[in-house]
Amino acid sequence: MNSSALAMGNVARGGFATTRWTLIRAATERAKPEAREALERLCQLYWFPIYAHFRRKGNTADQSSDLTQAFFTHLLESDALDTAEPERGRFRSFLLTSATHFLTNEYHKQTAQKRGGGRVIVSIDVRDAEGRLLRVPSDGNTPERVFEHSWAVALLDRVFERLREEYETSDRAELFRRLYLFLPKGERSQPYRDVANDLRMTEAAVRVAVHRLRKRFGDLLREEIGQTVDRPEDIDEEITRLFEAVSR
């Protein structure tokens, strides 16, 4: 299943009701109690691409953890989010540009304590983060490409988690466990016939189940990407960029 196949799906009506830009707008209204919750949701979704970007810029693991905290604190406490304009492009680009600018300003010269003001905006397990970073290709990759790759992986992980939860809540956990390798992120390691025998299904039934799994994966992927762009027509291009990023 390639990116063009995914691009053929339709975005559900109303799928753009709650986007990452919506969260940004909520986060800019700092007088409202839901503002912090909105930003914290953004942090939990996208802290690792920022961390990986800072690491590839030459910072140590601890420095990158501090900088990541400081970056999101900066977004929360300054007017940086007020300048975000959905009509100007993709949330991915906004976040990368903001992180790059952040490293060039006075914040990166301050102490770790002052950077974050002692506040913990997002929970970062440095050991876990370093383990994830080892899976990011480094040969010839710029900090920007590392961000793009990490962003794509984080988004795919989000899609896989949502899909897994759907199958588990409908008592199809074993089916998902056996079929997820047929999805783009996995690797098909067994013929349909062998999987059918293991699941006590016909080969035709397995093929239908894989088709449905892939379709739902595509729907969820488009939904997740749809939350990071302002225009529905940008989704197909973002899907292409995503698979290009993970293939590097």
Q: How is this fold's topology laid out?
A:
Elements: H1 3-7, H2 20-28, H3 34-56, H4 61-77, H5 91-104, H6 112-116, H7 126-134, H8 143-169, H9 173-179, H10 192-199, H11 203-226, H12 235-247
Explained architecture:
By secondary structure, the chain is mostly helical. It has one domain. Helix content is 65%, strand content 0%. The chain is built from twelve helices and no strands. The two termini are 18 Å apart.
Keywords for this structure?
0% strand; single chain; mainly alpha; 12 helices; 65% helix; 248 residues
Quick description:
The protein is mostly helical and 248 residues long.
Radius of gyration: 20 Å
How far apart lie the N and C ends?
18 Å
Count of DSSP strands: 0
Helix/strand order, N-terminal first? HHHHHHHHHHHH
* Helix-strand makeup class: mainly alpha
Strand content range? under 5%
Number of domains: 1
Number of helices: 12
Largest sheet: none
Low-confidence stretches: 1-18
The helix fraction, in percent, is: 55-70%
> Average pLDDT across residues?
77
Overall form: globular
